[in-house]
Write a structure and sequence with these properties.
The complex is a heterodimer of chains A (268) and B (300). With 268 residues, chain A is mostly helical. Chain A has 14 helices and 1 strand; from the N terminus they run ααααβαααααααααα. Classes of the chains: A mainly alpha (268), B mainly alpha (300).
Amino acid sequence: MHSIPGRRLIMALFLVFLLLPIYWLVNMSFKTNVEIVSTMTLWPHTPTLQHYKRIFTDESWYSGYINSLEYVVLNTIISIAVALPAAYAFSRYRFLGDKHLFFWLLSNRMAPAAVYALPFFNLYSAIGLFDTPWAVALAHCIFNVPLAVWILEGFVSGVPREIDETAFLDGYSFPRFFIKILVPLIASGIGVAAFFCFMFSWVELLLARTLTSVQAKPIAAIMTRTVSAAGMDWGLLAAAGVLTIIPGALVIWFVRNYIARGFALGRV
Amino acid sequence: MDKTVNQKAWFLVLPVFLVVAFSAVIPLMTVVNYSMQDTFGNNQFFWNGVGWFKELLDPSTDLGGRFLASLGRNLLFSAIILAIEVPLGIVVALSMPREGWSVAACLVILALPLLIPWNVVGTIWQIFGRPDIGLLGYVLNHLGLDYNYVSNDVDAWITVIVMDVWHWTSLVALLCYAGLKSIPDAYYQAAQIDGASRWAVFKAIQLPKMNRVLLIAVLLRFMDSFMIYTEPFVVTGGGPGNSTTFVSIELVKIALGQFDLGKAAALSLVYNLIILIVCWVFYTVMTNAGSERPAKEGVA
């Protein structure tokens, strides 16, 4: 009974509010540019796939998606790989400076990307990583590694420590215990952390745009560039936008029950 | 839970420490370095001491004026979106269906805006609000309202605020929903026996139980709105004039637009310091939230 009068109406109105702008974007992506500019139509009267076709056949467009996915996946792998042992350490042990370190990690999750844009540009240019997926993947670690540590720490703490002790008594070495026992136990937590790393790396633009120029340009940056150059190709812009929503929409389903936990950094 | 003291745990933390140190400490040191110097191009740098900081904190200078103005706009923006998103998020969470497939459907649709790249969020609202090709702008103008976010300050603000509400209210709603779900049914049954009104149930049971998640939601929303860059940048570009230029936008203008490294670095550090202070509050709340606070009665 945790509900209020008129809840169906409120929920329906809110969902409509959420979906309306997305509907408009999808609607536009199927229209010809002539139809977009000349008339106001609620659905495409002359539906066309030309914008999607252009994106999937023009290399300067689809390479943007590949570039984005490349650094997002790299970043997710790095983040989870380094965060797992740390999450275990924070959950199980007390050590010199642990609380300070934990806070320092969080403060990096909260640091404004705009502060780091310029120094990152200098740093990655200096070490020759500029305009590679590695630069963006490493740069995004600044907020994703802390996030992964926080989320995973919550999940590791949910595993009773008797399990560790039993495993060690049974003669498991630490690495073997970690891979054979702990990782399978917190598999869902790893999934959630990976999802959030994927997502925050996917939605970020400022750093990704600053650290790339030609070779590794993310789709988000290609969108902004083409808009100004091609004299507003609205249909193409809309189609590119729709295609960036799809990866997120596909994976939400798997983590729908953990979304709140992830956003609360594992603290719900 | 008792934790054992084990200094070897540092080895487990070391990879994280190195990665984050590489991507946070080195750049931050560069910023500190720049903030003390002036440059006239050609990679020639001159010692400037605390000059930039003095200028930054003095509203009568150009830099200080711009910083304070963008800071004020940003705080106002954060205050407005918190005032809208938190109550709305609570109402939406209370309106969630109880069970069945509609729960999953609602959760997925709620989460959808959170997963859209931020510049696409900007693009969506840029298109949606245009009087010529956007549904919202078109309808408003045909209702006789003179709505144009490109030329009118108030309209630009409304657009940016509605966009943020659209983008992030779901976060508050999802967190509150998670809090509400943790309330045992027995509480409601007890309330029913006592004949408690809807409002009394909300005030005495639901709100206290949501306390923790609400704090998290408020702090997260404050921090993220305080750092907002991409969405307003795409929609309004900081305009019309400077009316929607928030701190991050101002910073990027100075750093990457004018390449005024010293000024940008000084601004970055002050900006970071503000975030750090809020972050400390956040951390204290988060780590204390796990343990219920029995000692509190005695204090007040």
